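hey can u check if this looks right to u? its 303 residues, i copy pasted from the old doc so theres a chance i mangled smth
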Amino acid sequence: MLRLVLAALVGAAALVGCSSTDDDDDEGEAESGVVYTDDAIADGVSGILATPDLAVGRQRFGIVLLDRIGLVRLPVVNYSTFFHPEDGSAEGPLQTGQARFMPFPEGERGFYITELDLDRAGRWSIAADIPRPDGTVETFELGFDVAEEAAALAVGDTAPPSDSSTAADVSSLAELTTGSEPDPALYGTGIDDALAASRPFVVVFASPAFCTNEVCGPQVEVLSELAAAHPDAAAYVHVDIYENPDEIDGDLDRAIRNPILEEWGVTSDEWTFVVDADGRVAARFESFATYDEVEAALLAVIS
C-alpha cells in the first residue's frame, strides 16, 4: 500500500508555493513541505497537497497525483476521509466522494479538486483507490493537518485596506509584476481604493515569472480574462509576491517578499480572493483556480 506522509505545516515557508528562496530542500523534503517516504517512491504513486492551509469547516481541497510516467490524469478519483485521534486510531470514513481532475490551461499540469467537510482540528487522512494501466488498483493514502483557524484570510473575514501599488505609482508596469506582458486592467485600482469605494474586487497574489511548480498555474491570465468578461462588475487587482519585480532579473536572491502578503495571511505563492462590496472575503482559492471557479464566486457576489 502506498503511504505518503505529509507535513502540512500551516504557516511560514513550509507551505506549497510557486517558488522559494529556501535552499534547504535536499533532504527529501520539497518546498511544499511534502515528505516522500521510501514506500511512496517504491509503490510508484506520490502526491502533493495543493491546498495545505486547511482549517475547520468546509474547505477546498486539492492534490496532485504523480506516478513513474508523470501526472495522473484520471477524470475522477473516489475518496474517503478519516480522522486520527492522538491514540493512533482512525475514525471513519467520515466523508466519501469524488475528486475531479482540473487541468490547467495551455499546459500539462493539473490537480484533483473537491470540497471536504472538516469538523475538527487535528490529524486527518484521505484515501483513494487509483486504477492502474495494468488493471490493478493501488490504494493511495495522504495524511494532512487541520488547524482551528486558517493562516490566510477566511471566508467572512474583513479584507485589510492594503496599500497596493497601481500604475499611477510607477513609471513602468515592470515595477509591479514579473509578468512579461502585464495587463493594464489589473493595475488601475489598489486594494484600498476598491474597499473605500465599496466595490467588489478580485485580487490575485502571484509572481508569473516564478510560477513553475506542480500547483502553480497562469492565475494572472485568468484574472485578465475575468476583467475582460466583466469589466464594470468589479475591480481586478494583481499584487506580485515580490515588491521589487523589476530588480530580480531571474535571481530570487534579489527578491524582497511583498509585505502586503502578511496582511492577508498569505504564506504560499499563489492565492486568489473574491471580496464583496461590504469588504468581506466571499471566496478564497489557494494555488491555481480555474476561470470557472473564480467566475462562479464573482457572479455570486455581483448578482
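Residues 1-42 have pLDDT under 50 and may be disordered.
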